[in-house]
Amino acid sequence: MFNPTRRTTVRQLLVAAGVLTAVALSTAPSNAAQPAIQSAPSDCPKGYFCGYKKSNFQELGFRYKDCYKQEIPDGMGSGGSWYNNQTPGTQTGFYDKYGNFLSATDGAPDSDAHGSWGPVWYVKNWC
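Above: the chain sequence. Below: its structure as tokens.
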């Protein structure tokens, strides 16, 4: 069941983690800024939610089109990224190893070039 209060709490934690990461990265030397993703990665066809093992949509781990809760593959690790290339407005939910709701994407198209698969065991496209 969708719980907006829980989603806000998880999002706040993720934002806080992102701020800490941004601070750490801003103190490290950088040769060039990462380009923003303007369109879906070529290996994420229209109608799919795609999960990547590495940041910036590198090393496709899975792509799901079906509308039921599916376990993500082993080896996704704690880093990664995802791209939601489903029908416009469609969301995908993230769930822990017990099937408890963690958070959800915004409506498609949506993405996170620097996500974390650490707490996620299942995803479900909300078709």
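The longest strand covers residues 48-54.
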